[in-house]
Write the structure tokens for this entry.
Amino acid sequence: MIFVTVGAQMSFDRLVGWVDTWAIEADRHDVVAQIGPSNLSPKRLQVLPFLDPPEFRRTMEAADIIISHAGMGTILTALELGKPIVVVPRLGSLSETRNDHQVASSERFAADGLLLVARSEAELALRLRELASGLAPRARISARADETLLARIRIFVDGGTRTPR
Amino acid sequence: MSRSERLEFLQSPSEPAPGAPRAARKRIRKVLAVASGGGHWVQLRRVIPALDGHSVTYLTINPTYRTDVPDAKVYIVNDATRWDRIGSLRMALRILWVVVCERPDVVLTTGAAPGYFAILFGRLVGARTIWLDSIANVEHVSMSGQMVRRHANLWLTQWPHLARPGGPEFAGRVF
């Protein structure tokens, strides 16, 4: 099963349209999608309603591949579960989000081998082919932050030092 | 001794009696942990292990997130961006109410707008405050992170190349 998600806050019809077309061309009937507040009626994708966190996690667990906007909630959850993930960054210029922060962060994560990035419909099809042939990165992260970060916060909460200004 | 160091000294807990068991020395803090939706919430949950032994109350925007922290007290506020003036005002008043009721010792937030207000109001009731900027902000600290810099006692970025003296501090990432 392939799980497509655009997060709960904003629609991302560009991505949903691309995956719908791909699913028809690739003759895939096992693609489910959380498309956010959107009026789109995909031809092939099975649209899911809003999922609460446990449902979202269960759907991620059941999926073989995640296709997503470059939202950190989805990326971190996919990495926790060790699922291969292809992200399409939302663009500020298309009003898909406020600015291009998703472009910068997805490039960084891709450079670290944590995920695949697609910026165009053709690139998305290419990435999905790479995944099918087992070329995808399969990173897995633990469920908690760096110990150094936890220690810094712990020390501060216990009464320790501030950021020097 | 700088002004902030003097305040630090004034706020530090009194020493326990000599010979008191070590466990008793750690004071339990009331922490208000704040995040808006999606990645902000997921990142907050990843730093919560740092609060083991303290009393944590949550403030977020989506009631379904309660399922992630079933045993904790969770306040819900409306979500709003800074361009939505009425929504922002409603959010700010609700957060002011929560902060006044809870009187936390520490406010910890991963953003965005609710975290900004929680830090602002937290300082009014004497809380010490932590801003952990989202890992999504690779090129610069987020706008709400910039707005909160004067009010956050611990001001963290997750990217070492954004850390600088007098600016945000890097101590590690959420993974």
